[in-house]
Amino acid sequence: MPETTKPMTKAQIVSHFAQSFELPKKIAASIVDEIAALAIDQTQKAGEFNLPGIGKLIKTQRKARIGRNPATGEAIEIPAKTVIKMRLSKTCKEALAK
């Protein structure tokens, strides 16, 4: 059975960038925060944000539909809403599918 590892925390990501690029942790943290803020801002404005080598955030509208309450089986109306999807790049898919 493969060994399980936990996902990296923000602090671990900041430390990794700080070591990789020989930057102070404060500047590395600012870069991570700015990438996140840019992704949110551009997805809100343009409807999508491309992070090369990883994928694309895409803002889409989901139509209203009829669903079922799993407890009672009763039909309920699910309202329309905006959802965000992450579409992985071909490079990322191929690297992760190994």
What number of domains? 2
| Element-by-element helix/strand order | HHEEEEEH
What overall geometry do the principal axes of the alpha carbons give? elongated
Q: What's the level 1 CATH class of the largest domain?
A: Few Secondary Structures
Q: Look at the structure and give the mean pLDDT.
A: 93
Topology:
Blueprint: H1 10-20, H2 25-46, E1 48-51, E2 55-62, E3 65-68, E4 75-78, E5 81-88, H3 90-96
Antiparallel strand pairs: 1-2, 2-5, 3-4
Helix pairs in contact: 1-2
Task: Name the descriptors.
single chain; about 100 residues; alpha+beta; HU Protein, Chain A; 2 domains; 3-stranded antiparallel β-sheet; two-stranded antiparallel ribbon; elongated
Structural overview:
With 98 residues, the protein is an alpha+beta fold. It has 2 domains: 8-46; 48-98, HU Protein, Chain A. Helices cover 41% and strands 29% of the residues. It contains 3 helices and 5 strands. A hairpin with a 6-residue loop joins strand 3 (65-68) and strand 4 (75-78). Helix 1 packs across helix 2. The mean pLDDT is 93.
